[in-house]
Amino acid sequence: MVRGMGSFFKECEHPRSRWSKCSHPYKVRYRSAAGKQVKESGFSTQDRAIARLTEVYNAKKAGPRGQAKAERIARYGAMRFEEYAAEWKAAQRDLGPASLVHLESLLSIHLLPLLGSRRMNTFDHKVVEGFIRAMERNGVGLAAQANAFDKLKAVLLDANRLGLFDDNPVAGVKPPQYDPERVVIPSVGQLRQIRTAGDDSFLLVADLMSGCGMRNGEAFAVNINNIAADDVYRITEQVNRTTRQYERLKHRKPGEYRDVPLPDQVRQTIEWYADKHGTVDGYLLRHPGDPARTFPHHHIANQWGRIKKAGEIDIPNGMVVYGLRHFFASNCLTHGIPITDVAEWMGHKTIEITFKIYRHLMPGSISKAAKLLNHNLAA
After folding, report:
1. What is the pTM (predicted TM-score) of this model?
2. For residues 300-328, b (16+ Cβ closer than 10 Å) or e, as one string?
3. Are 216 and 209 in contact (CB under 8 A)?
4. How far is the C-alpha of 102 from the C-alpha of 95, rounded, in Å?
């Protein structure tokens, strides 16, 4: 019996195993198209009872609801991804201005160039996996890959709810993953050269990222009033790349913060920069051409490009500015600081993210544990 067809039975004293031999009629029970339970009787054989249930089921399937589904599939299935995504985006009324700009950027840069002309009814898991591989071949960063996949998944799940697919096209697809081999971290000697290769703002950002584990935007919002103690800095906000305004931290609600270690060298750099350049409401970094505006993300990115192009200092192959934050994690873990603390200081949503990215930075941990545990075991 197909799920949703209904059931057949007999109301007599005989067990089910004797129904085929007793003379009592079969009865059927099902729900009508309006959802009301219906019972019918008078069927001399089991086959006739099943035939009646099949007739009712097919009639419901071909009725208004079934017809409506067929019309949806015909309309949206032939629609191109670009058109469907535009309708889906218009329905995302809960998105703030920054999130909407970010969504439009992901669509225009990553999704539409590869999938825009594809018919919706041609999506399956192989198409989705091919999209991820195309991003990998094009050298798209892992964060951008993950964000683009999440948006594609949201669009396709919306289409799946309309009944466009027999099988969910993202079911079983492995999302883009951080590859530890692609996390490039400078050595201590390389960091010493890198931090002094740019202007004063570059030095400050480099120390905040490598010494406190800040994200780029968090470093751009550094405020001298956030020094909570000689060895503690309280991260409360970031400069949003899209809105260019001070906004809440990633994975945090408005008003939430996280306290991170403040090494002496980083505190001295903060104080030195404040003494030399002054502050605006406690903020150290402001727009070079207009102190009334926030510090622009491109200022550090442009310097990094010039530093690498000059080739005058030793920079590991494949390193990006974010490698300075990776240095912080590496420095913590190789000195035995628990990964739970590192995850909290870096502001990761879950410890699994920290573990996935940085597990390889803890070589020999099992051997080390075996030696330590052996001290208190009986010989």
Report:
1. 0.61
2. beebbeebeeeeeeebeeebebebbbbbb
3. yes
4. 10
In the chain, DSSP assigns E strands to 7-9, 26-31, 37-43, 227-229, 232-235, 238-239, 246-247, 258-261, 286-287, 290-294
Instruction: State the CB neighbour count (10 A cutoff) for residue 185.
Output: 20
One-character DSSP codes across 195-243: HTSS-HHHHHHHHHHHHH---HHHHHT-BGGGEEETTEEEE--EE-TTT
- How many CB atoms are located within 10 Å of the residue 155 CB? 21
Query: What values do phi and psi take at 116, rounded to 5?
Result: -55, -40
72: its two tokens: 């949806």
CA distance 37 to 46: 20
Q: What one-character-per-residue DSSP string does 124-182 give?
A: -HHHHHHHHHHHHHTT--HHHHHHHHHHHHHHHHHHHHTT--SS-TTTTPPPP---GGG
Query: Lowest-confidence range among 34-38, 132-136, 153-157?
Result: 34-38
Q: CB atoms < 10 A from the CB of 86, how many?
A: 13
Indicate whether 66 pLDDT > 70. no
Residue 352 identity (one-letter amino acid): E
Q: For 188-208, what is the mean pLDDT?
A: 96
List, in order, residues 6 or more apart from 323 with CB less than 8 Å away: 183, 184, 185, 186, 316
The residue length of the chain stands at 379
pLDDT value at residue 242: 80
Distance CA 90, CA 93 (A): 7
Write out the two tokens for 6.
């209904």
If we measure between CA atoms, which residue out of 269, 261, 224, 229 comes closest to residue 337? 261
Mean pLDDT (whole number) for 269-274: 97
Q: How many helices (H) and strands (E) does the chain have?
A: 16, 10
Beta bridge partners of 38: 30
Percentage of the chain exceeding pLDDT 90: 54
What is the residue-averaged pLDDT of the chain? Answer: 88
